[in-house]
TrEMBL record:
UniProt main location, coarse: membrane
Name this polypeptide is given: Efflux protein A
Membrane topology: Multi-pass membrane protein
Subcellular location field: Cell membrane
Domain of life: Bacteria
Ranges where the record places region Disordered: 473-499
GO biological process: response to antibiotic
Membrane-spanning parts: 21-44, 56-75, 87-104, 116-135, 147-169, 175-195, 207-227, 239-257, 278-300, 306-327, 339-359, 365-384, 405-428, 448-467
A matching Pfam family: MFS_1
Native source species: Streptomyces chartreusis NRRL 3882
Gene Ontology cellular component annotations, sorted alphabetically: plasma membrane
Domain Major facilitator superfamily (MFS) profile: 21-471
């Protein structure tokens, strides 16, 4: 329910309070993304200081991903049922406390636990924050502009996390853990004053406890299995049994959701072509980029011998493009529509990835690396906001949290799954022997870069199917309760949304 205190003026201008509300939500999104990337550069220092093994260090990253990706579905629905403002503020407070503890502990297990709690908190702030935006700003140009700023803040946080980590780790790895705490605390205090109060969803069948348990368990096990698979082996009995268990849990989840009067995810939302393209687009978009950044970081630091800060600065042009586009992309979406921009964004990223295949052991940055960074940054600036706009357009207010949680789940699970796939491909092509030549190592990276390119190409092909849909045909029934939700199959077929 939109608050009159935060509504745009009749001329469409944003009030200072509305800007303040958006900045609070952007701060949380910035921190969520920052925390994903900032810890990577600090891992060697953490391991040396706390005496952690490589496998233990992995869980400092994976613990966050596990909590974040595993609980997003529950976080999105909780925002709808318990109140978006309440869920957002409580989770943001927990995030600030976990950040403080993470920078003070002297134990590896406690540090991993604090990272899991931070990921859990982000699983609630991300869908709650996105749904506050979509229920505060009316659908159309105002919402598109707000979502463009919001999503680019997340992308900027991810990019700047590399730079901040390189700078802060020079002094102490603990600063990388502590930095989010004061920012989160300030955002919490301002949010208490500015965030609009929203009504809770009541009288709609109660809480879907079985669905929440099955959905959360399936996502936690899926992310855990994917994170662990490269270590224990994709063909190991443990991995195969884990994937089988995920399939059983998901099947049970679908069965429960089909019968629940108040489902965690109303399956009718997936009858819409634009919604499905947004979810699959997010899966492949983030999956390709995370895999690309992982391989490029290894290439620059291990083969070229660049420092962490030098590597971070090499990524800076892409991040700068995303940041500079924040206030402009909304107007571009209004003019050309999400479908066209998603296709163009994916095409730019595919082109950038293909160009990066030219790398060698002595690259000229301006001629070899910079063009890819500019293309990938441009693609990111166009695609990520468009995915968020398309996923949330036309969705009933009481289901905005649900769709936001679903989109963020696609983002996190896509990143985890495809990073694991890229890592497995590189490992399978790694040279044997104790001291492989740099050229042999570089040759093992190329298949991984090719997989990254193919993932992005799959996203391009998926989004191309949206161009046949007339632009004026909005996804207004993406999450509305329509007759087909309770109709017979033949009746549902007659009223189903078509692309």
């Amino acid at each position: 329910m939109t608050s009159p205190l935060t509504s745009p003026t009749s001329e469409g201008r944003w009030t200072p309070r509305l800007w303040g509300t958006l900045l609070v939500l952007c701060a949380a999104m910035f921190l969520d993304a920052l925390d994903v990337s900032m810890v990577g550069v600090a891992l060697p220092s953490i391991g040396a200081d706390l005496g952690l093994s490589t496998s233990a260090l992995q869980w400092i990253v994976s613990g966050y991903i596990l909590g974040y990706g595993g609980l997003l579905l529950l976080g999105g629905r909780a925002a709808d049922l318990l109140g978006r403002r309440q869920v957002f503020l409580v989770a943001l407070g927990v995030f600030a406390l976990a950040s403080l503890l993470g920078g003070l502990v002297d134990s590896g297990p406690l540090l991993i636990a604090s990272r899991f709690v931070k990921g859990l908190s982000a699983a609630f702030t991300a869908p709650a924050g996105l749904s506050i935006i979509t229920t505060t700003f009316p659908e159309g140009p105002l919402r598109n502009r707000a979502l463009a700023i919001y999503t680019t803040c997340g992308a900027t946080g991810y990019s700047m996390g590399l730079v901040f980590s390189g700078l802060l780790t020079e002094a102490s790895w603990r600063l990388t853990m502590l930095l989010p705490a004061p920012i989160a605390l300030i955002a919490l205090l301002v949010g208490l004053k500015l965030l609009p109060r929203t009504e809770r969803e009541r009288g709609k069948g109660g809480y879907d406890i079985p669905g929440a348990v099955l959905g959360t368990a399936s996502m936690l096990l899926l992310v855990f299995t994917v994170v662990e698979a490269p270590e224990v082996g994709w063909g190991s009995a443990r991995t195969i049994l884990s994937f089988a268990a995920v399939a059983v849990l998901l099947a049970a989840f679908v069965a429960v959701e089909r019968r629940s009067p108040s489902p965690l995810i109303r399956l009718g939302v997936l009858r819409s072509g634009p919604q499905v393209r947004a979810q699959l687009g997010a899966l492949t978009f983030v999956g390709s980029y995370i895999g690309f950044q992982f391989l490029v970081t290894l290439y620059m630091q291990q083969l070229l011998g660049w420092s962490a800060l030098h590597t971070a600065l090499a990524f800076l042009p892409a991040g700068a493009l995303v940041a500079l586009s924040a206030t402009k992309v909304g107007a571009v979406i209004d003019r050309f529509g999400t479908a066209r921009l998603m296709v163009l964004g994916f095409a730019l990223m595919v082109t950038g990835y293909v160009l990066f295949l030219r790398i060698d052991l002595d690259p000229v940055y301006a001629a070899v690396i910079l063009p890819t960074m500019l293309l990938v940054g441009s693609g990111f600036a166009l695609t990520f906001p468009s995915l968020n706009v398309q996923a949330t357009n036309g969705v009933d207010e009481h289901e905005q949290g649900m769709v936001s949680g679903l989109l963020n789940t696609s983002v996190q699970v896509g990143g985890a799954i495809f990073l694991a796939v890229v890592t497995a491909v590189v490992t399978a092509n790694s040279p044997e022997g104790g001291d492989p030549s740099p050229q042999a190592v570089l040759d093992s990276y190329r298949p991984g870069l090719l997989v990254v390119t193919l993932i992005a190409l799959a996203g391009l092909l998926i989004t191309l199917t949206g161009l046949k849909t007339r632009r004026e045909q909005p996804s207004v029934v993406v999450a509305k309760s329509t007759p087909q939700d309770k109709a017979t199959p033949k009746e549902a077929e007659r009223v189903a949304v078509r692309d």
